[in-house]
Write a structure and sequence with these properties.
With 420 residues, the protein is an alpha/beta fold. It folds into three domains: 163 residues, Adenylosuccinate Synthetase, Chain A, domain 1 (3-Layer(aba) Sandwich), CATH 3.40.440; 91 residues, Adenylosuccinate Synthetase, subunit A, domain 2 (Orthogonal Bundle), CATH 1.10.300.10; 156 residues, Adenylosuccinate Synthetase, subunit A, domain 3 (Adenylosuccinate Synthetase, Chain A, domain 3), CATH 3.90.170.10. The chain contains twelve helices and 20 strands. The strands form five sheets. The protein has a ten-stranded mixed beta sheet with strand order 9-7-5-2-10-1-11-15-19-20, with helices on both faces. β3 and β4 form a beta hairpin. α4 runs parallel beside α6. The longest helix has 18 residues. The radius of gyration is 21 Å and the shape is globular. The structure holds guanosine-5'-diphosphate, 6-O-phosphoryl inosine monophosphate and magnesium ion. Guanosine-5'-diphosphate binds next to α1 and β3.
Amino acid sequence: MVDVILGLQWGDEGKGKIVDYFAPRYDVIARFQGGPNAGHTLYVDGKKVVLHQIPSGIFHQNTVNVIGNGVVLDPVTLKRECDIVAGFGIDVRKNLFISERTNIIVPTHRALDKASELQKGESKIGSTLKGIGPAYMDKTGRNAIRAGDLLDKSFISNYIKLRLKHQKLLDNFNFIEDISAWEEEFFEAVEFLKSLNIVNGEYFINNKISEGKKVLAEGAQGSMLDIDFGTFPFVTSSNTISAGVCTGLGVSPRQINEVLGVTKAYCTRVGGGPFPTELEDATGEELRKIGNEFGATTGRPRRCGWIDLVALKYTCMINGVTQMVMTKADVLDAFEDLKVCTAYNVNGKESKEVPFQMTRVQLNPIYESFKGWNCDTTAIKEAAALPSDMSTYIDFINRYVGAPVKYVSNGPGREQIVAL
Ligand code: GDP
Ligand code: IMO
Ligand code: MG
């Protein structure tokens, strides 16, 4: 059986911490999509670690970690991260496995990402500039180099072919930047990657499942950034939703069991694109300050706002969420009044659905107000000790969305989580 943990908003919901918390209950933790655009923060022995490519189960000696075929993998980021992980005494050669079908991010993907964003100007997506879009374009365009290809002698000639194709595109963009230093570190990192376990991912995982092992699929980004169902074109280039688990790991839909959706108690977004409940005022600033809302990958300030139940109900629907984890509830400790968005006013008409697009319509959120709990919740361990105003807030969300919040995260620490 495969359980899934994924983000229900625009990313950065705290997935890394939650995967790390649940990891001891699983034998295998597998990333199924995304790449180094992800930044998953964990605290190990009180030390902060941000993982971009490696699954968040890596710090548990008894879990096997898999980078699935649906991921785009930058060898440079991977090597850097393996060094960090090794500093904690973790041997990645023992518990990290990479699917041979995983697509490789090459230096020119990063250059193309940058060139494309520069050309878009004001309407840029706000990409993390890690080469995600161009790498997935080469996958669907059937040009990509995959991890298994690195082991074949044709790799260099295929790399040169791809590099030439990219150069023509870069010339079209009038992009002039010397990337020879990027290439040098790329080839060094490729040698390192070749020394890791590159396996047939789909057999690897399905064999584990047949042996009765428990698999946890770890999502990156968030459902509102999904290439099909997110706020297109301000999205990432992969299917971030539960359906992506099947294509990103090679497991059948019949194997998917629990889908745990992670949502903040409020909402954030980093990068461009629509964000109905965004607060561009002192309250938004306070959320950013208390929640320390700065990107784990790029350091950019995250846009902040109230929780959006229209979007949350939508993402629970497309993911088949069976339970939710509400993170950063402690960030709301200091607020006297809270708001939740229960509907949108779209061109003067009330709607409870996420529209096809949000940029060519007049869209305003409709809120219901709640009394804040106004007390420090960060040391609470038991559900019974949570303030009743928080329970009222959560009960309302449960009823609206139709999926229950089963865990409340009340701080960034590993132990700061309350089961309801
Ligand atoms: P991810 O991409 O979904 O893994 O989330 P990020 O790591 O990008 O961002 C989440 C941030 O919130 C990190 O800095 C976490 O350490 C922090 N965090 C996670 N859960 C909580 C929580 O319950 N309370 C607080 N205050 N911080 C949290
Ligand atoms: P985690 O896994 C938040 C956003 C970028 C940009 C858009 C496209 O940490 O939750 P891309 O680099 O994918 O082409 O960028 O998606 N984005 C994220 N936002 N968390 C992430 O990952 C993100 N990964 C990409 O800011 O708006
Ligand atoms: Mg993140």
